[in-house]
Specification:
Layout lengths: L6 H9 L10 E2 L2 E2 L2 E2 L1 E2 L8 E2 L2 H15 L3 H4 L9 H11 L6 E4 L2 H12 L8 E5 L4 H13 L4 H4 E4 L10 H11 L3 E7 L11 H10 L3 E5 L11 H4 L3 E4 L13 E5 L45 H17 L1 H25 L4 E4 L12 E6 L3 H9 L2 E2 L1 E3 L3 E4 L8 H14 L4
Parallel strand pairs: 4-15, 7-8, 7-9, 9-10, 10-11
Antiparallel strand pairs: 1-5, 2-3, 6-12, 11-12, 13-14, 14-17, 16-17
The structure holds pyridoxal-5'-phosphate.
Length: about 425
């Protein structure tokens, strides 16, 4: 498709956009009486209008039923998470029994590492990506220290090649083979938070399994953003937060995936009463008998007020379906890329280097742009002119044109604002 950097063209794309009405399902912060241009749905998604109803429902049940709400609310609290199994499993390409919602992301990754990182004298190493999200790095360091290993000898980072911004698949596979028998676990982000690079999870999982390692993914930037087939890819485990692309609100519940093949295995885990045999949970028995399925990793009774907004969101995603979202995602991301390139050419002395892979198979809804020749003042200018984006050292802004609520006209408008803010040499 050939694009044009005009308002008329952008409006035409919006008029033909099947998802255009979903924009009205969200609440936008206002700037001078207009919706902001929101590029940080990869950090905190906007609030869907329907969310309040889901929370009010719990508040009303609590007011009217108090403790009885556990069993007699319209959506009883004691098994509230079961409402996610069907729609959420479709979003991540899993069987309903393979997903659950609980806790928050880093907590869940720790809990899953308890089950899937079982180091031995000879097999104890972990492969992760260089410059992984800091929380993941702290997690790896504390996990290996907990097991009595030194991080320098245990955590192996896959590096970018000199002068490159992205990690090559061939380098990941080579490292997996090199570490071989010593490799206990591969755990990387499905989509890199900084560059937006999408990893080939199927191939990485195969390679990890071939050398006898377990393979898991941190899907913080992948859930609700890319097509996932966790079951078919044979991934051992995964977890994601729900407040980025999935719009569940700040710090709300995380989703987990545990492959079916592990449900009956007697994996070590940290247990609590909510993972215990559902029929017998309230018999208060002394011995733990885990639920078969991802729900068997539950620990505490459910944070229903944190789950309610996530349920609102999961139902919206199920309604739209990932295929439509992905089709719009690719189009709007390409349109944004086109506009950035136009401005780059139009204004001498600028260089916007898009460090996100150009190959559509290796990227999703994010362009990370290195602003050569521009400084933090450009970012500050955008923020005070109704464009919400984020700044990462040394000189990168991340732009996520989220398909559920960003419009093509937003991309055009952004280009116009950006042009005015560029410092010309
Ligand atoms: C956002 C993000 C997190 C956040 O972790 P929380 O436990 O939800 O605070 C972790 N890992 C990655 C890769 C992220 O992008």
């Amino acid at each position: 498709m050939t694009f044009e950097n005009t308002r008329e063209f952008a409006r035409q794309l919006d008029a033909n956009d099947e998802l255009r009405n979903y924009r009205n399902e969200f609440i936008f912060p206002q700037h001078e009486g207009k919706n902001v241009i929101y590029f940080t749905g990869n950090s905190l998604g906007l609030q869907p209008k329907r969310t309040k109803k889901y929370i009010d429902e719990v508040m009303d049940d609590w007011a009217n039923l108090a403790v009885e709400g556990h069993f007699y609310a319209d959506k009883p609290w004691w098994d509230y998470q079961e409402r996610f199994a069907e729609p959420l499993s479709r979003i991540v390409g899993a069987k309903p029994s393979e997903v659950t919602v609980m806790n928050t992301l880093t907590v869940n990754l720790h809990l899953l590492m308890v089950s899937f990182y079982q180091p031995t004298k000879t097999r104890y190493k972990i492969i992760c990506e260089e410059k992984a999200f800091p929380s993941d790095q702290y997690m790896f360091q504390s996990q290996v220290a907990f097991h009595g290993y030194k991080k320098e000898e245990t955590i192996i980072e896959i590096k970018r090649r000199e002068g490159e911004h992205n990690i090559r698949l061939e380098d990941i596979l080579a490292k997996i083979n090199e570490v071989g028998d010593e490799l206990a676990l591969v755990l990387i982000g499905g989509v890199n938070y900084y560059t937006g690079q999408v990893f080939d999870m199927k191939t990485i999982t195969e390679a990890g399994h071939k050398v006898g390692a377990k393979v898991g993914f941190d899907l913080a930037h992948a859930a609700g953003n890319i097509k996932l087939d966790l079951h078919d890819w044979n991934v051992d485990f995964a977890a994601w937060c729900s407040y980025k692309y999935m719009n569940s609100g700040p710090g709300n519940a995380s989703g987990c995936f545990v492959h079916e093949k592990h449900h009956h295995a007697n994996l070590p885990r940290f247990a609590g009463w909510w993972g215990h045999n559902k029929e017998r949970r309230f018999k208060m028995e002394p011995d733990f008998d885990p639920v078969h399925g991802a729900d068997g990793w539950q620990i505490s009774n459910l944070p229903v007020l944190s789950l309610a907004p996530y349920l609102a969101s999961v139902e919206m995603f199920a309604e739209v379906g990932m295929d439509k979202l992905i089709a719009k995602r690719d189009k709007i991301t390409s349109y944004l890329e086109f506009i950035l390139r136009e401005i780059d050419v139009e204004i001498p002395g600028t260089e916007f280097e898009i460090i996100t892979p150009a190959n559509p198979k290796e990227r999703a809804c994010q362009l990370s742009v290195f602003l050569h020749g521009q400084g933090r003042s450009l970012f500050d200018y955008l923020m005070t002119n109704g464009v919400i984006t984020d700044w990462r050292e040394p000189n990168v802004i991340r732009l996520a044109p989220v398909p559920l609520y960003c419009s093509f006209e937003d991309m055009y408008e952004f280009g116009q604002i950006l042009k005015k803010g560029i410092v010309r040499p």
